[in-house]
Amino acid sequence: MVPPESELPLAMPLREPAAAATTSAPVAIAARTCYRRRPMATTKIKAGSTVDGWCTKCKLVLAHTVEAMVGAKITRVHCNTCGGQHAYRAAAPGAGKSTKARRSTPRKTAEAAQKHNEYEVLLRGRTGDKARPYATSERFAPGELIKHSAFGLGVVIAERDSVKIDVAFPDGPKVLLHGR
Ligand SMILES: [Zn+2]
């Protein structure tokens, strides 16, 4: 048995009038918003842009130049430090999990804090008066403190090859020449 149709609407809670009232916002504002709307302002990153990414050769997060993109996704880059071309990777392999776990922290702040923390650890409380002034003609050994005119006080992390050293600075790691 089906009840007569006329009885159905009465049995349903009708709350729609209230909702309708809130959505009927002033027409003038809505029209203006539509007028000012611009075509999809996506990221400004394009081929040739500089982005921070993981260098598979340097094993560091360094500045890279975008070479190819698919839509808004960066695919190929080259490292501004070593010049190596590789697929784009935002962070170190294995760093993904911890990044996701700490989503609430703004990424740049977290990265900067991490870089600074590593630097503090490497510095081990040493100060600039033990640092040697940096010059490409000098040779530096891992653990040594160097004074760089632009980057400040640095700690040599490792000797990459006969002419390059990885150095931690307050703003993050850099690759410098030495023994030239
Ligand atoms: Zn590199």
Task: Walk me through the structure.
This protein has 180 residues and is α+β, with helices and mostly antiparallel strands. Among the domains are: 50-101, no CATH class; 107-177, no CATH class. Helix content is 26%, strand content 31%. Strand 6 (145-148) and strand 7 form a beta hairpin. The chain is globular. The N and C termini lie far apart (96 Å). The model is unreliable at 18-22 (pLDDT under 50). The chain binds zinc ion (ZN).
Beta-strand segment tally:
9
Order of helices and strands: HHHEEEEHHEEEEE
Strand order of the largest sheet: 5-6-7-8-9
Major sheet, described briefly? Answer: 5 strands, mixed
Number of helices: 5
Q: Any ligands, ions or cofactors bound here, and which?
A: zinc ion
Proportion in helices:
25-40%
Residue-averaged pLDDT: 78
Instruction: Estimate the strand proportion.
Output: 25-35%
Oligomerization? single chain
